[in-house]
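Table S4 entry, Mechanosensitive ion channel family protein.
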Amino acid sequence: MFVSKLRLALLVLSLLLPVANHAAAQGDTPAALIEQLTQSETELQAIDRALDRRVGADEQDALRARAVAAQQAATGLAKQLEDQLARIDARLAGIGPVAEGATEAPDISAERADLAQQRANIDAAIKRGRLAGVEAQQLVDEIDHSRAEQFSERISTRVASPLTPRFWVDVADAFPRDARRISSFFSQGMEQIRARWADVLFWPALLGAAGALIVLYPLRRFLKSFGQRFLIEGAPGRRLRRSANALWRIIVGTLTPLLAATLFVQGLRWAGLMADRWTSVADAFVAVSGFAGFVVALGSAVLMRDQPSWRVAPMQDDTASRLTPLSWLLAGTSMFNVLMTAFNTAVGASQPATITLQGLEALLQLLLILAALFILSRLRAAKAASSSASKATTGAVQSLISLLVWILAAVSALALVLGYISFSLFIGQFIGWAAIVGATLYLLMAVVDDVATSVFTRTSPLGIAMSRGFGLRGSMIDQFGLLLSGILRLSLVAIAFALLMIPFGGGGGLNALLSQAGALAQGIQIGGISISPGAILRGVIVLVIGLTLVRLFMGWLENRYLPATDLDGSARNSVSLVMRYVGIALAVLWALASLNIGVERIALLLSALSVGIGFGLQAITQNFVSGLILLAERPIKIGDLIRVGTDEGDVKRISVRSTEIVLADHSTLIVPNSELITKTVLNKTLAGPLGRIQIQFSVPIGTDPHVISTIVMEAFQAEPAVLEDPAPAVFVDAITDGRIMFNCFAHVASPRVAYGPRSNILMTLLGRFRETGIDIGTVPQRLEMLPVERDRQPTRKPEDDA
């Protein structure tokens, strides 16, 4: 099963290569494209005729791959012909229609007729290409439906139960014929070898066997130890070394058995000791050797029984030691199943013998599954008492999976007893295949995450080079590594799910995945827009280039041009902010244009966004427009001292959405721009940079006001922060309730420094007034309690009436 699917994947990839070449050949002439379309139609007709007869599973896979490749080719050719048709339409539009009553020049009339003929031919070819794509999809659906029916028929077939005498009677009846077929298989092979005994060369067989032993033992151990030493000395980071070592062990563990089996079998062939009837079994032996080696290497890489420090999976040594033999048993079972199936096919075994072999394979698979479940159950029971709260969730997930496998194992055993041997074998093979795919997915996800997050990080050599060469921030490099890891891991999950569907034999699995990948490479239509990986990559590259150009332009604008102007800092910020947003908008429009999204579609998108803005984004739009007003009218500038409500501070930053104000306690107040436009804001530095000190107090009415004025002026002059121009001033503000009210003013260089000088002046005044005996303060208030008169009736007592 694994070998046939691997061959099918290679076949699909090889058939998809011409499709990619067709898609890349944009310069082909219409005649050449029509000729290629004819070839695709011929291929589809051949596939249709092949389906008129009953075909096997392997041949169905090949036909399906050919149909998918022909479909991709026809779709790609139709797309290229549409481009050619658009060019001809443009040429016809350039020539223009014939004016009424005018005589057209012969050469123009001939060119018009030629273009019209070409247009008709290309239009007909486009329709043929679309029809070919539909027919190819119908052939693929027919093959998938046929395979699904065959799969259902195979697993639903019932024979006599192995526990009944009828089953063994059929086996006994067919045994003599099967014995003769086996004897004929070996005797014919030996006769063929004896017939060419004179030409037999034993040294190629000996060399092949010796080479196989060398590759399988010394070379394999040397490669493992060499890779580990190389990773210790050269690979950065423990996680990356651990993952790379696991991947290297799988590569070595898969290729060395495959190479050893190939050398051994090829040596027998070169020596002339391989009969023709034995070839299929020998090929199966080579293929299953690689697969068994992969299973063993996968278990060794994940568990790492002898080297716990290199272990990828977080598990204890006891668990790894008990699970390691299971990988060997699974590899041995798979090897036995493949070799016996190939042997039965080569011998031509009878149906009872084939069913007996399938029952034996199902029994072996069932015993292996039960052994794994018992080992896991004992391990889980031993650790249940010491499990923490975090491990309890993981244990629950494992228990759910174990319960599901127990149910499948019980169903497999019941099916085997009832005579549904194919169904029982299918369940066992599916559980084994799911374990292999799951372990591979776990290991590859760990490897991908370790590589992506170790290579693309700010401290790695590549990250340092990217930061210095492209000016990228360290956080951007780290984020790219995490995003790349997530994308690759999601892709691995999709591939694993497709591989998990392989045993079902339907249209899903790896075939459908490769077909969808080929369709995606050609592009999909969404709202009249063709979206493909190439177009997306082109759009991303254009966007990155556009943003890079915007960044370079902003660097020149902020560092070179704006400093040479007479604009102040706030005006420079406004110009820089507007230009940055304009540049980003132009870069986005350029990227959309690279995706062949026209201006009319962009306008449609903006109109759709305007509807959303009208319903749910009023506040954001209001703040955005208010920010533009602030940047244009500049009632508030960066560096201004403003008061919003009860909060006062310096304007630090003005963006299109909000304004940042630094308060006196060093906190930052973020105010939406609409608040600064629609409400009252006190800007203390808008008209000028000066600040003012105001002092108000009162003295008794008998005090000489000239003395008070002199004392206040001397206090103003004693403060260094008080400016001479504008000069300080002392005013009699009012005479109220026997007191004289004074209102005094002085100016300082900035409102930000007014608080300290004002405090110094007040302390000076308090000292001078205390020395001179002048009473200052507010108007005294007196609270007088007045009696309340109430009308009261005397209370009559009963004894008064007596």
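Confidence is low (pLDDT under 50) at residues 1-27, 388-394, 506-510.
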